[in-house]
Amino acid sequence: MKGMKERLAKKIKLITIVATLKQGLVIHKSNIDRTIHHLRDEIVLESGQIKGCVTPTLLEIEDVEEQEHNLEEEKGIFLEFEEICPPGGEDSVVFYTTGLRGVRKTFEACRRVRFLLENHRVMYRERDVSMDSEFREEMWSLLGRKVTSPRLFIRGRYIGGAEEVVALNENGKLKKLLEGISLVHSPCECCENERFLICSNCHGSSRLIIEDHHDEEMWTRCRECNENGLVKCPLCS
To answer: Where is the signal peptide (predicted)?
Structure first.
């Protein structure tokens, strides 16, 4: 009787082991099948490198769908704004501002927009209309009327003045509009974010002394700089 019990116990143990092995084989086979299904459409070049996979994984599909959704959302946001592109503003941020404190309201409005751009840590081209009249004429020409700063443009789209920019920041749209813009890691190595450099031709005087036909000295306007004896920074203006 004791021998029968021992043999029965061994058979039960053996059945359990076999069942576990079968379960393990099924799981292993399932993993292999999934791997083969993913790799069967891969195209192998003569050099042995994989050219591409026609059958993407679920995660890859989800990533592509998410990227497409984000692109469509981004395009939709940009379509809300008028397409007006300042020089050099196709893929950048252009900010027309003033450094003069004569009109406090205008100066404070420019400070608010600058603060938001710096808070998002994006690179932008600041064009101070008080430092160069050419920037003022450029801004007026773009908008077709004489307007005051600040005026913000992002990727060739006119975003607006201070009120519009602040409202966009509060509802989260400004962050989406600035996505993809290069981030600021350090001050401009050329002008330290001053946006202008002193003219090396006239040393900031905006005038030069020349000799006329009678060998007499006379003053003339320097053609290398603006009315303030400054030249635009070639990197960030």
So the answer is: none
